Amino acid sequence: MKKTRAWLYGIAGVLGGLALTLHTAQPAIAQPCFAAADPDPFFAAPGDIGDFAPGDVIDSKGMPPIPALPGVGVTLVKFRSSDSHGNPIAATTTVLTPPWRAPGSPLISYQAFINSLGSQCGVSKAIYSGDLASGIREVPMFNLWLDRGITIALPDHLGPTFAYGAAKLGGQITLDGIRAVQRDPQFGVANAPTVLAGYSGGGMTTGWAAALQPSYAPDLHLAGAAFGGAPENLVEMMSGIGYSAHPAFGLAFAAAIGLEREYPTELPISEHLNALGRDIEAQMSNSCVGQLLALGAGHSVTDFATDTTLADDPSVLDVLNQNSLDQYPGTPAIPIFEWHSPNDPLLPVDAIERTDGRWCAAGVPVTTLQFPIGEHLTTAVFGFPEALAWIESRISGVPAPSNC
To answer: Matching InterPro entries, A to Z (predicted)?
Structure first.
């Protein structure tokens, strides 16, 4: 139970902890604190990465079986994507191939919530972990899809630098991952009905992928997107966590580190940490969610920073808004299923309702459900059955409902 509650608080840290960006300058000597390179050379970008188009397959390799998914084939696919500034990057997705599959069977891209900074914590690694704190908690649900002959893609949506908190980046990687899986003939899903899904941090990435698809990947034909508990306004999350000690501050700090990796000029937090902050930053730079929570437990912004004058810095606020779905003007071109609790203590619920309302006004078929529970993880459990039924209808070609 303690691990579960720690994870729940960690969801707030995915974004709410961006308050750590609020610091004044010490001498500009510190650089972003990146994760150590993955020891597996498969994850490295080739020298000619710029010659590939977004979504092009660079390489693939078979992976060991996953004990919790008996009979399922596992393939790691490396593909070309783009970072937040449009530069080419190499990204990866893990493809789960069911024991049997009929021609035209569906594809589901599932964005798991991985709140981490180290390469060993990625989805492609965590899928093998039975650790509830750092593994993929939704694995049992995957069997429901795999038993029906559905292929599942699990992108490493934090990117090669583990830019935790950079939500728009995650959306782009997700879309390019789908392109790659559909383009690779070994999977036979080139024309498969395709649905996006995810919860919490993974739901945030899913929402971004849905909203970006018309402009970023207009070649993709998606059947819908189902997501819940998605943080959709980072500025409001930052304000919500405040300056007092917070049980999720470890992930709060980690989100700031991750965003600096993607936006080193606009958000140079490493230049503005005190000695304790720099020490904890170094310890966190290769850590998974459990370690991040432990390292930040009982701390606050003022423990790690000299002061809070960057709270109103235009470049900081711009980075947060660039990664806030609530602030993105584009709308999805596919049906949406969204669920949350109006009493969720970890989310700015007004931002979710604004986004749903804006999409509805634009003519997007949106089904939104609210579960007045008051706890983030319990809301996920209550919403998943409805989401699974909605996904089943989309991949079966049933016209999408809307309760706008």
So the answer is: AB_hydrolase_fold, Lipase_secreted
- How is residue 188 annotated by DSSP? -
- The 10 Å Cβ neighbour count of residue 49 is 16
CB 267 within 8 A of CB 259: yes
Give me the half-sphere count of Cα atoms (radius 13 Å) on the Cβ side of residue 32: 23
Q: Tens of pLDDT along 83-95?
A: 999 999 999 999 9
Q: Give residue limits of the domains in the chain.
A: 1-337
pLDDT at 310: 65
**The pairing of beta strand 73-82 with beta strand 57-62:** antiparallel
Cβ atoms within 10 A of the Cβ of 85, count?
A: 9
Element holding 224 (H helix, E strand): strand 224-228
pLDDT at 14: 36
pLDDT for the residue numbered 133: 64
Residue 120 burial by Cβ neighbours in a 10 Å radius (0-12, 13-18, 19+)? middle
Q: Which fold has domain 1-337?
A: Rossmann fold (3.40.50)
Q: How far is CA 91 from the centre of its chain?
A: 14
CB 320 within 8 A of CB 278: no
What stretch of H or E contains 238? helix 234-241
